[in-house]
Amino acid sequence: MITPVRRVTAACVLSAALSALAACAPEATRAPLPAPSATAASSPAAKPPTLAPGPAGLTPVFEHGPRTRDKTVALTFDADMTSDQGPRAASGERFDNPGLVAALRELKVPATVFMTGRWAEEYPRQARAIGRDPLFEVANHSYSHHAFTDDCYGLPTVDEERMRADVERAYAAFRKVGVRDAMPYFRFPGGCYDRRALKALTPVGVTAVQWDVVSGDAFATDARAVAQEVLDGVRPGSVVVLHCTLSAAPTTERVVRSVVPELRGKGFRFVKVSELIGAAGGRG
Known about the structure:
Blueprint: H1 10-23, E1 61-62, E2 72-79, H2 86-90, H3 98-107, E3 111-115, H4 117-122, H5 124-132, E4 136-140, H6 160-177, E5 185-186, H7 195-201, E6 207-209, E7 213-214, H8 223-233, E8 238-243, H9 252-265, E9 269-270, H10 273-280
Parallel strand pairs: 1-6, 2-3, 2-8, 2-9, 3-4, 5-6, 7-8
Helix pairs in contact: 3-9, 6-7, 8-9
């Protein structure tokens, strides 16, 4: 998930590069899993907030929270790994980033991790630890990290009839490694979606989560420039897209250590995506 020439999203460059290297509704208000949110441990019956269905009952799309005086911001991290990158991981490439997770814990920053099912399988202990830490919430980034549209920065595509199964397979992978409370939120690989994809996912009951601030952390070598991009873009209710993939986004830990105190100094409070969606009151 990164920005190419069109600068649509920082997420899309990462998707394309990882792919190249590898070659080298009514139901929408229900969670896809019966387990409660990790943030609602005190109320086992509570369900995570979701958006009301979009036009014609399609999967709703969330981009940012309310632009209010309550200066909240959600840092989100894509744990990208495509279904065919196992050999690269076996040879030592790091698709995880333990230092980043440790920094978030040290700084006490709530965050939402959009995880692929393949990433969870490759790093089951880390996935389980993130999923069981009340500071974090795990959301769905597909199983395969293949695109849900035909033209998405060179990514392989998921056939329409397999889209729902790909998302559900990711939830199954989360459960298998011990992530008990994965959220009913989904981020499209590459940020690419269309009406067909939204319709295909309607039965799953997820809210699609995009963003309004592109960090530019993918393949970046200048942490200060990335940090400034975040600081310049954040507004009340913002959703910031970053990455939890060390080999492809090596500066992200330094970026987080830089922007967190600065944003707190400006009066911002860090929240999970679920809190922003709850504050939106069912509206994207």
